[in-house]
Amino acid sequence: MDNMEKVRKENIMERAVELPDSSGCVGFYRQEKMIYCRMSSNIDAYLKGLFQEDIDDANLGEMLEACELISYEETESIFAALLLEKFWKYEYQPQYNKRYRDYDPYQYLGINFVRFPFLKLENDTIKDYFYVGPFRDGYLVRDAIDVLSRLFGTPVCAELDFPCYLAENKQCKGYCIRNQEFLAVDLVRYFLLPEQKDLSVLEEWKQKLLAELKFRESDELASYQRILQRFYSRITFLAVTKWLDAEFEYKGKQIKIKNGLLGQDGSHRYLIVETEYQPHELYAVEKAELDERWVIFNYIKNMFPEKLKAGYELSRKQLADYLIRKENK
Fold first, then answer.
1. Calpha distance 149→127 (Å, rounded)
2. Are residues 192 and 264 in the same domain?
């Protein structure tokens, strides 16, 4: 903790101190005791946002009221920030890390291959859907559903009743009243096993529009590309994260990843709870694990991309087995 910078809470609230915009870990203290800690990819944005937002979580409000001093330690990457956060939690047992569940608003995408509504955002995984997620940003999922419908006619299910105006306007193929034989194929194709060539096709369309000087349409297509790139990257992540196992050296310490989570950092070993997932949760993980899994996935993707292939192939096989069992019921 020798590299920690400490500032009073009031100085941050009054913006009387400059904060780094780098990754790192932030600790909150009361009477010299750490009561909460959190990694962040941008310390400045995280702390300023924390004190600007309307606080609707009682535990967060209580923690911010109780804390007197805030510390931060910059790191070279968000992966290093994750290692630091795990160590602080292990070493100092901050009480509000057990009470404040900042992941509660995360949402899952529920997919039904047979019945309307075919796509729906859910807060948990207890209903009759195939679940994907969770997602930090529910708006990204809604945007992706809308974009895929506009481009490829996939379901939207924007209303409680069917057929809705989108089917009547042919933005959606109207799976609720026709084309049912294509429903499962299209849901898998665009929401579970998306292909990079879709983005390549969009790039070709965009370049064609630019050549025709249709700049407004080209800009709109570019926004669709960005949405699908973000959505597809998260689908790939959710497909492989539970199968990621790796051992490597980082800054002179041995790192062990087990089932997509941090099991060991040097001499520190961390307990990994073996969650028993159901077949319809193949692409779903615990909300509390999402941020750790995302950071680890991106580090391995950048440093050891070959380790993703086996997980993706295993995930595809299990998805195929699930769909076969579902069809035979």
1. 24
2. no
The answer to whether residue 1 scores a pLDDT higher than 60 is: no
Distance CA 80, CA 85 (A): 9
Percent of the chain with pLDDT over 90: 60
pTM score, two decimals? Answer: 0.91
How many angstroms separate the first and last alpha carbons of the chain?
A: 57
Across residues 25-32, what is the average pLDDT? 94
CA dist., res. 58 & res. 229, Å (int)? 35
Q: Which domain holds residue 69?
A: 5-99
User: How far apart are alpha carbons 161 and 266 in whole angstroms?
Assistant: 56
Same domain for 211 and 256?
A: no
The two counts, helices (H) then strands (E), for the chain are 12, 12
The model's confidence at residue 261, banded by pLDDT at 50, 70 and 90, is very high
Distance CA 262, CA 258 (A): 6
Mean pLDDT for the chain overall = 89
- Domain boundary among the residues 54, 76, 99 is at 99
- Rg of the chain (C-alpha set): 22
Q: What is the pLDDT, as a whole number, of residue 170?
A: 67
**Residue 229 and residue 251 in one domain:** no
> Where do the DSSP E strands lie in 136-270?
246-250, 253-258, 261-265, 268-269
Does residue 27 carry a pLDDT above 90? Answer: yes
CA–CA gap between residue 88 and residue 35 (Å, rounded) = 11
Residue 73 within a domain:
yes
Residue 196: burial class (beta carbons within 10 Å; 0-12, 13-18, 19+): exposed
305: which DSSP letter? T
| Pair 195, 131 in one domain | yes
Render pLDDT for 29-40 as a digit per residue (tens, 0 to 9). 999 899 999 999
